[in-house]
Write a structure and sequence with these properties.
Elements: H1 3-20, H2 28-41, H3 45-52, H4 56-78, H5 84-98, E1 103-113, E2 132-139, E3 145-153, H6 158-164, H7 166-172, E4 182-183, E5 190-191, E6 194-196, E7 207-208, H8 218-244, H9 256-277, E8 295-297, E9 300-302, H10 305-310, E10 318-319, H11 332-345, H12 355-366
Parallel strand pairs: 1-6, 6-7
Antiparallel strand pairs: 1-2, 1-10, 2-3, 4-5, 8-9
Helix pairs in contact: 1-2, 1-4, 2-4, 3-4, 4-9, 6-7, 8-11, 8-12
């Protein structure tokens, strides 16, 4: 975060922080700086408290209060409810940048490692054998978070995470202001607008997921490739979040409620800084330069710098996986829509240049 961005953020949250500061030795600016250091550097509470010459209890209270204020102030600015025209704009960006028309967002969920909550039993104990809460998120074509749902128990099945989230309920009950079904570009194939996810999520009329299995027919393999181009955006959004907010580099030693506030604050800060950088030249972007994210070349995927920064050893932000194999059977309508989209992406109207060679090259490497 640049000094100018810090000042802008302080101007937004400072008045509320001032109300909490009357009896404390720290000014609103110090309270905000302390919290940002904790979130971005991942320092221990002891280190933070020592640096500011305050007690650990005071430091913990400051972090809890400031993250709550950041969420309350910023979420109304950087996570505003989306309207019909917002979705149309996002769809154009996915179509232009990632080549999959009618895509409204990419969805995924991650386990955030926490210490064992008191009296929780196995409620937060996940399939990776540690305690966690789930961050479910949807992002746009430029790695900005559109929806977040935080706090599902780590032991909860992944289909249940989506179904019980505010986003999942709104999607299922047709409460989102999605564009109405239209023909796909340069074709007469009518298709609803949809979100894209991986196999952890149920196939639906407004949620596309890949075909399962190895050695798929060419058409299905091309569909999976095209879907992965759009779905990779949410993987990179999480990667940016983890690499820039190092609090996620370890198990967070706080209560589930405090962790909930930490996640909400970092999501808002991510969007806040991304939006501030959006109009800058590429060489001026510090939070999310192009090199940070994966990119596709004729030879395959070039991994973004976030993967090297994060590494593979940390146990946080692990994938959710489908555990309730007996459920989530897709309906006939969803299966037919996926087949229609498959036929479109292999047709002259919907094909991308080089997609057959790209997919065949990958199939050859596997064999």
């Amino acid at each position: 975060m640049t000094p100018a961005q810090f000042d802008q953020l302080l101007e937004m949250v400072g008045p509320t922080l001032q109300k909490h500061s009357n009896r404390e030795p720290l000014s609103p600016s110090q309270r905000l700086a302390l919290t940002l250091r904790y979130l971005s550097q991942g320092d221990s509470i002891f280190s933070i408290a020592s640096g500011y010459k305050i007690g650990r209890s005071t430091a913990s209270t400051v972090i809890r209060e400031v993250t709550e204020v950041i969420w309350n102030v910023l979420n109304e600015v950087v996570l505003k409810p989306l309207k019909h025209d917002d979705f149309k704009k996002i769809e154009r960006q996915f179509s232009e940048k990632w080549g999959l028309p009618h895509t409204l967002g990419a969805i995924d969920g991650k386990h955030v490692a926490i210490q064992c909550p008191q009296n929780s039993g196995s409620t937060f104990f996940n399939y990776k054998k540690h305690f966690s809460i789930v961050l479910l998120a949807v992002c746009d074509a430029h790695y900005n978070f559109m929806y977040v749902d935080i706090g599902a128990f780590g032991a909860q099945s992944d289909g249940g995470v989506l179904a019980n989230s505010a986003f999942g309920k709104a999607l299922a009950n047709f409460e989102l202001e999605l564009p109405k079904e239209e023909a796909l570009p340069r074709s007469n194939i009518k298709m609803p607008y949809f979100f894209v996810g991986d196999d952890a999520f149920p196939l639906g009329t407004h949620l596309m997921k890949p075909y399962k299995g190895a050695n798929l027919p060419l058409g299905k393999a091309i569909f999976n490739y095209r879907l992965s181009r759009a779905r990779r955006v949410i993987e990179n959004a999480f990667g940016i979040l983890v690499s820039r907010w190092r609090i996620f580099s370890r198990t967070i030693p706080s209560s589930a409620t405090t962790v909930d506030g930490i996640i909400k604050a970092t999501v808002c800060l991510h969007n806040f800084i991304k939006q501030k950088e959006s109009n800058l030249p590429e060489n001026k972007k510090k939070y999310c330069p192009q090199s940070l994210c994966d990119k596709e070349t004729d030879d395959g995927i070039v991994e973004g710098e976030w993967r090297r920064e994060v590494g593979t050893s940390n146990i946080v932000l692990e994938d959710i996986t489908k555990m309730d194999r007996g459920g989530n059977n897709p309906g006939k309508a969803a299966l037919e829509l996926r087949e229609k989209l498959t036929q479109y992406v292999i047709s002259p109207a919907g094909a991308l240049p080089g997609q057959i060679n790209y997919v065949n090259r990958g199939r050859t490497k596997k064999n």
